[in-house]
Amino acid sequence: MMRSSPTISFSTYSSVKHASCPEYVLITPARNEAMFIEQTIKSVIGQTIRPAKWVIVSDGSTDGTDDIVKKYSAEYAWIELVRMPERTERHFAGKVHAFNAGYAKVKDLQYECIGSLDADISFESDYFAFLLHKFEQMLDLGVAGTPFVEAGFQYDYNFVSIDHVSGACQVFRRKCFEDIGGYKPIREGGIDWVAVTTARMKGWKTRTFTERTCQHQRKIGTGRGSVFKAKFKVGQQDYYLGGHPLWEVFRALYQMKLKPHIVGGVLIFMGYAWAYLKRCERPIPQELIDFRRKEQMQRLKSVIFRIVGPGRATGKKR
Predict the structure, then answer these.
(1) How far apart are the C-alpha atoms of 30 and 117, rounded to whole Å?
(2) What percent of the chain has pLDDT over 90?
(3) Which of 25, 129, 138, 218 is spaced 20 to 30 Å from 117 by Cα?
(4) Which residue(s) pair with 143 in the sheet?
């Protein structure tokens, strides 16, 4: 249990210090999330500190998502449904367009933090109070979140740094979000990664706080096809988001020990190699690619140092 003082637990802190916490708003792009969104809505309604405004943007949903949101927005004035027109083509830039439709509804409000929240996650009642408290503690914190878990899976932070914040729930300090120019509408994906990495490049701290988790209901990366296709696309995305080739080799080797065993790592590397041979266009600036590769090499050195020990890593006898 995290404590804000030697004698007061955080849950107590969140209730007695409610008025001092930063004001926040949430935006949720949702496309055909009728199976999961009610769990997310109940999680937000149950928060010890609720958002000043929560805009749920239905991105052309056809499965009853709108009806579920309308039921709750009729009862809670701070929940608003925005409807986007239906579209046949599915791509990741659509999520950004939906987010921006929600952002237009809140950008003139008074708030200190803004969160992008997926429509298929759930969390404990002090989830946002916990994150808001982190923004109070760390004045240079630009983006915050927690790990997500799904069917027993959780990221290994040897290869996923705590400096990265999952797109399932990203909470930005408002000034940081404005500094990075918001989310970039990249059709192939990686919009969450670009936002967080750009924030670090501009001098903000970004952090995943492992003391809390959120529960992800849908298996990550499978919304557009099979697990095998998703793994191949991960490799492609690693290339066009500027991943270093040496980092990709180590990542593929590591992924081979995870399900689907061997095949997953092979497909990731094949996706990267395919994009490399095709010279796929990279939708991010060179300075961001350079920044990412520098971070990757620093992390790779750190991982090797932990595995082989200080003597072997430096070539010195112990």
Answers:
(1) 10
(2) 74
(3) 138
(4) 172, 206
